[in-house]
Amino acid sequence: MDNLEETGEPLLNKDLSIKYICFECLDSGHIYTVVGTELGDFGVGNAIDTLVRDDGERRKIRRSKLYKRFGNIKKIPLFYGE
Known about the structure:
This protein is mainly beta. It is built from one helix and five strands.
């Protein structure tokens, strides 16, 4: 049983909306929090999201790249009972 890998879900819904504000990437083990979104004129697929990693690194990533980069995540509850 030790060799079973934990499988998660993609970060984005089919309409490219973000499922969870705080999540763990099961591929890298890092925890990320979405702290901002900049919408452009060309729809949500071109939105730029700002993520903060558990080590403090900030990244701005286009929504279409999030779909490819975070395909195996697990929700991290922000509040008790969530």
